[in-house]
Amino acid sequence: MPQTIEQAGEHAGKLKRKEYERELAKLHVELVKIQQWVVHKGLKVCILFEGRDGAGKGGTIKALTERVSPRIFRVVALPAPTERERSQMYVQRYIPHLPASGEVVIFDRSWYNRAGVERVMGFCTMRQVEDFLRVAPAVEKAIIESGVMLLKYWLEVSPDEQTRRLESRIDDGRKLWKLSPMDIESYSRWDDYSRARDDMFAATDTAWAPWYVAHSDHKKSARLNILSHIVANIPYKEMPRDKVKLPKRKIHPADKRGAYKFKVIPELF
Asked: What is the C-alpha radius of gyration for the chain, rounded to an integer number of angstroms?
């Protein structure tokens, strides 16, 4: 009997922090090489992340981008559409954010909002959802044929782990911004989101733009698995570089500088 998407991730294991940091550092080196190759070859890369609330999209994106240039690896997290945007063709507001030559664009949620939160929370009609699912593969094929490399990731978290993560945000001042009224309202609709996810996969998991699922109950393992998959699926070569040697410099004694009174912050620590 085939496994469900939830059952498939039951045997994922935890990583110790030192092992995680060691493997993450190796992947960061490769991502820097990818960055240099993307710029050199003028590649266009688009990576989108979807998943349930609390699945770990933000932490994964942070791990992906923390050692590369934000001018090349650009994160797009669009707010709710404006009145004008709601009157446009649905995918229209996403198109301007697609990568140009020498860019990697990362969508923290994407046009698949229509197949997920908009459907579950009643922000659109089922007819609109069906229309979206019907045309999305063709839109993505056009994006790819324009030269964009498209990678689509779904982060899957278990009900118990989602509850633990959302509860941890309630009393943590660092995480309050992660817990929106929408998160609270949608929390009880697990089965609705499961049906929406399965319909989305059935319609948009195509040969040219497949979905890749990452089980994310163990955050560190999920991040390494996703970053490893990205590195394996973006063809690149290491760029040759000259050996760097710092030149000599002359620093004048402090007493020969001007007597400008700098505003120094209090040293509290």
From this structure: 22
- Gap between the Cα atoms of 254 and 132, Å rounded: 66
pLDDT tens, 219-267?
A: 999 999 999 999 999 999 999 988 999 999 887 776 556 677 889 999 9
Helices H, strands E: what count in the chain?
Answer: 9, 5
Sheet holding 103-108, edge to edge: 73-76, 103-108, 44-51, 148-156, 211-215
Phi, psi torsion values for 48, nearest 5 degrees: -120, 145
- Whole-angstrom distance, CA of residue 269 vs CA of residue 266: 9
* DSSP letter (8 states) at residue 108: E
- Mind listing the pLDDT tens digit for each residue in 96-154? 999 999 999 999 999 999 999 999 999 999 999 999 999 999 999 999 999 999 999 99
| CA dist., res. 167 & res. 179, Å (int) | 9
Which numeric CATH code is attached to 7-241? 3.40.50.300
Phi and psi of 149, rounded to 5°? -90, 120
Residue 265, Cβ density class (10 Å: 0-12 exposed, 13-18 middle, ≥19 buried): exposed
The model scores a pTM over 0.85: yes
